[in-house]
Amino acid sequence: MILVGNQRGGAKDLALHLLKQENEHVEVHEVRGFASDNLMAALNEAYAISRATHCKQFLFSLSLNPPKHENVSTETFEQAIDRAEEKLGLNDQPRAIVFHEKNGRRHCHAVWSRIKLDEMKAVQLSFSKRRLIDLSRELFLEHGWTMPEGLRHSHGRDRAISHWRNGNRPSALAKTRSKLKPYFRNAGRSVKHRTLLPMH
What we know:
- By secondary structure, the protein is α+β, with helices and mostly antiparallel strands.
- It has six helices and seven strands; from the N terminus they run E-H-E-H-E-H-E-E-E-E-H-H-H.
- It has helices spanning 11-18, 39-50, 74-88, 128-143, 149-165, 172-192; strands at residues 2-8, 25-32, 59-65, 95-102, 105-113, 115-116, 121-122.
- Strand 4 (95-102) and strand 5 form a beta hairpin.
- The termini are far apart.
């Protein structure tokens, strides 16, 4: 299951997008932790609360796309959402879940309010992309789904990037020394063969 998430504002635009009738079937599956059980009202509520903070991207939106030819149960989607919530630190934050069905394919969207009501601060979302990639890989392995090529190789690529960022590479100074070495060698040869003139 491919998981793609991002922080965002635009409560009304998101609600309109999730309810768009271009899909064959739209189901608001859950609205939790909001005063209203209406999706538009719930996301507008999140916006109203965010006005008391400095947070502009007060929502976290997640799309869950199962493998093309797999029939994924509602329970499997719910479990994936709960695990994403745990990994991202959004436990018990107000959320909504919407199912879409188009051309016979079912996928899902989950939206959380990032604002903690007791602190009036946004949940800090660090490394959310990395966490979702890891969870996505776990889901493919656990369910025996064929993992997409990009997801299969992203781990090695990311590890190589991490290795590079953690300083396991030639330093700038080492590179500079390497470039200058031939000049020092040539300078040494010139000194050896130079005729010294007597001083007056």
